[in-house]
Write a structure and sequence with these properties.
Blueprint: E1 3-8, E2 11-16, H1 22-43, H2 48-82, H3 98-123
Antiparallel strand pairs: 1-2
Helix pairs in contact: 1-2
Length: 124
């Protein structure tokens, strides 16, 4: 079982852990140290037990707040997932009758014929 030295509130502690868990232990100690440092800076040197207790309580308070927020978000997600799926929106696409295409083709043909006549007169 490896021993890991962690620093919390400016004090070193030897802690044993399972092989391969050293990284997790260091990460947890860093969280605790982040809570202990402001305490030590504000109050000066505290007894070890009091520093660890207060740091642990502050960290537990943050954890409880995150768990509460997580619970609320899960409830919101469940409510959203429980909503009925809205029916697809119906979109009507107008269909152009075939006669319109025929009429447009006739108009285009007449316009081309007129353009040809105008061109012939302009050249002639």
């Amino acid at each position: 079982m490896p021993d890991v030295t962690v620093s919390i509130g400016g004090r070193d502690f030897q802690v044993a852990c399972q092989p391969g868990e050293e990284h997790f232990l260091r990460a947890a100690a860093a969280l605790l140290d982040a809570e202990a440092e402001p305490l030590v800076q504000q109050m000066g040197r505290l007894p070890e037990a009091r520093m660890l207790l207060m740091s642990g309580l502050m960290l537990a308070d943050k954890t409880a707040a995150v768990e509460d927020e997580n619970r609320q978000l899960k409830e919101k997600l469940a409510a959203l997932q429980a909503r009925p799926v809205p029916s697809p929106e119906k979109v009507e696409v107008p269909v152009i009758p075939p006669q319109v295409f025929e009429t447009m083709a006739e108009i285009a043909a007449r316009a081309e014929a007129l353009a040809d006549r105008v061109e012939e007169r302009a050249q002639g």
